[in-house]
Every structure is written in structure tokens, then in C-alpha cells.
Amino acid sequence: MTDAAADIIDLYRRHAGAWIAMRGTRLTEGVWLDRFVGLMRPEASVLDIGCGAGVPIARHLAGEGLRVTGVDASDEMITCFRVNLPDQTAQLADMRSLKLGRTFDGLIAWDSFFHLTPDDQRGMFAIFRSHAEPGAPLLFTSGPAFGEAMGTLEGDPLYHSSLDPEEYRELLDRHEFDVVGHVAEDPDCTGHTVWLARRRFAE
């Protein structure tokens, strides 16, 4: 599956239009997004990691009065994000080497982080911490158990992987995040496995 993992960025570049049409505008993540928003002050800054075209998640967050910065490694997705949310910020970047030089009041990596290999996922937790203000919530999706899985997008293989839940907890704790909520294969969120954590305040 190594080749499929390495092809993720090009896959989303080649099939950006198809993915956007398939994703649609229906928001099924509302309960978790509401919890995420509830942990921040009004007009807080949010970093959307793997933002795609910005619809519906970034648009929903902006509609809640938050200031969204979207990052994605597909320039086609970033172009669409800028069209869909012209008042927000978008930047072309690979999450694995993200260094924006600033921190945010909240971070989200919904249906993006889980396309990375297990080793790349482990490396992301230092990146999450370096971009998170104390008290910032972190919302991301994963698989329910350790392993790799393949889907398809327009007939091409679509790579996913997950760490074991206990390793996610250990990585969050090591990087100064406390778990606020976690549901494996949430029936109220189209079967997503969801993590909501929060960076600790300085003691």
C-alpha cells in the first residue's frame, strides 16, 4: 500500500472535481463541530488541516463567526476553497511539513489525517502542538483500530491508515493534549471514528 499512500496528493489533484461533487454540501458532522466550536471564544482562529474545497466544514465554521485558515496539498482544492470562502485564508501546504509560524485557537483534521501512513501520523502530533494555543481544541478522524485500508476514488486506490486507539491517547498525552471526547464508528456521524482533544493550559 506504500505506493497508494504516496499517491494521495496527486489523487486529490487529479480527481478534485469528482471528490467535491461526491462530498456535496450536506453537513453530517454537526454534533462534533458544535462541541469543537463550543470550546473556543467568539471569532477564534481555526486551522483546517486538509481543508479540501472548504465545503461544508470550513464554511460552517466561518458561519459560526470563526476565522478559518485552510491548508491543503492539492492546489486544485485550494483554488476551490478560495472561491467558496473568499473572506477566509487558504494556503497550499503538505501537512506533514507544516510550519506556519503561528498558533491557532482550534485545529481540525477531518477526513484528511487518516490518509497518512502510521509513521507520518505519529509525526503529526508535534505539528498539532506547535500550531495550537493553550486550551485549543483538536478535532480529527481516524480508523477504529490499527491497520491500513483501501478505498477507491474514480477507480483509483485511496489509502487510509489508523493507529491503535491507545497509541492515539499516548501521543495526545505526550504532546500536551487531553482527550475530551472519543467515539469509535459513531452511528450519529455516518460511522466516523472521532477524536476531540484539547491542549493543556500552562500550569
TrEMBL record:
One of its GO terms (molecular function) is methyltransferase activity. Pfam families: Methyltransf_25 (PF13649). SUPFAM superfamilies: S-adenosyl-L-methionine-dependent methyltransferases. Residues 46-135 form the Methyltransferase domain. The keyword Cytoplasm does not apply. Keywords: Methyltransferase, Transferase. Its EC number is 2.1.1.-. It is an enzyme of class 2 (transferase). The keyword Transferase applies. One of its GO terms (biological process) is methylation. This is Class I SAM-dependent methyltransferase. It comes from Tropicimonas omnivorans.
